[in-house]
Design brief:
Methane Monooxygenase Hydroxylase, Chain G, domain 1; Transcriptional regulator; single chain
Length: 92
């Protein structure tokens, strides 16, 4: 299993997710206030893009930390890259 090892990585990803939480709360309020479908759709699209960005950052940081470090053996590197490929295929 691949994990984020860097406290900085965790902090940055959690900050992005906190912003997304705020966006979702805003969307809920928009729906409760019966805003136009177009405005709600615009905010949903922005939120979806923000979630995609978090996913991309997560995968990129995992590749940097686990797959591109110089102290891995070839076999270990292949296993970790295969795990990353599996995550991408499953969730991208």
């Amino acid at each position: 299993m691949l994990k984020l090892n860097s406290t900085e990585d965790k902090k940055e990803l959690l900050t992005r997710l906190a912003r997304i939480e705020g966006q979702i709360r805003g969307i809920r309020e928009m729906i409760e206030q019966e805003e136009s479908c177009e405005l709600v759709a615009q905010q949903l699209a922005a939120t979806r893009a923000a979630i995609g960005k978090v996913f991309s950052e997560l995968v990129a940081r995992a590749i940097e930390r686990h797959c591109l470090s110089g102290n891995l053996t070839d076999q270990t590197s292949r296993k970790k890259l295969a795990a990353m490929a599996e995550i991408l295929a499953k969730y991208a």
